[in-house]
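Checklist before submission:
- one chain only
- standard amino acids only
- sequence pasted in full

Submission:
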Amino acid sequence: MSEGETDHGALSRRALLRTSAATAAGLGISGLAGQAAAATREDVPARQGESMMGVPFEARDEVRMGIIGLGNRGSAMLAQILAVPGVRVTALCDVDAAAVRRATRTVTDHGDPAPAQHTRGENDFENLCTRDDVDFVYVVTPWEWHVPMALAAMRGGKHVGVECPIAPSVADLWELVGTSERTRRHCIQLENCCYGRNEMRVLRLAHEGRFGTLLHGAGAYIHDLREELFSDSYYAGEWRRAWHTKVNGDLYPTHGLGPVASYLDINRGDRLVSISSLGSPAASLAEYRERHVPAGDPAWREDYVKGDVTMSLIRTELGRIIHLVHDVSSPHPYSRLNHLAGSKGVFEDYPPRIYLEPEMRDHAWGDFADYASYDHWLWKEVDPGPGGGHGGMDYMMVYRLAQTMQLGLPPDIDVYDSAAWSAPFALSAASISAGGTAVPFPDFTRGDWTTPHPGVDSPDPTP
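Returned file contents:
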């Protein structure tokens, strides 16, 4: 069940019937396009309970966490989790028993009691989700498992956090929203990029009005993964490359969209209205295969349909524009773009640079380091050193999650944010299949998007 190197096994018939996520994966572009069209009509699903906006966690001294998936990402995040004060890992799950044993040793070497081990088949995660000693379930598995595991966690009375993306279809997103409302359990897209130092500084600058009236932003996931995608061990069963044979769209939208949505107060005064997407030719994976994969390898039977570059323009209710890019197949230095512009200036990342009036003039960029005083309170008060991870953003994300749970605060990222940020997975595919036609975003808040409530820029809760 691991997101990285361990093998999650074949999807069972039960899992296929239980969630539309796996079904959508098999249907490919046309299936996702149909689901997107069907789920963006005005007759949205009825609310299954009261809104989860601003709903606090139950306060607790200790956060007991269960982790499903101990591959590359899961095992790396285990170190971040163990470094956070007041968090204890009480249960681990993976079909690879060796991965669970290694993770158990990591926990006990940290000085904590050995966690329960769930390794009895691909559905043993359901047993973890019903444990009395788990408060929060962390899902770190291949994408087709995200929805059934998140649903099992909420139905088992647990709050749940899911790696990116939270779901591959709009129908799944609505089911997650409805289940969260009905069970009163939070379902959170664990988007670490929202907690990056640069992202949080830009967020503070935006909310302090330094950019003036916000006009447009850009976000991306540009990461050359060709070597990892063709690795025999990095992604179990090479599952991630398989998605490139099924869906032509933005397969990983939240790293870019999450931070920009936070800058623009999406679901807190503005909302995502429509998306128009185009895809480039699909060339780089096939060319990489020709150069590096021996004849006779099963990869030679694959037909790649996902364009190397997916570009989307998202329009908001207030008329602002978000440029979203996905590219994991062509040679390009790593970038998330991370761009925000307003009537008084602009920030662009990779490398970071800023231009604000009245400080700057004559078309000369300023030094972003000069604005360190605008760092978010998390980066001023919390040392990411104990855990680190992606420049500290991984630790900051887990630290803040634990803090909200311990103090009984609402989460920074709720199920409505999570659904909106992952929706471009399906909606971009629908738009591309329709020649770039604008596809409407569902309003997962059902009209509550103007309601003020906590977000990533929540105030410091400590004296």
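Reviewer check: The radius of gyration is 21 Å.
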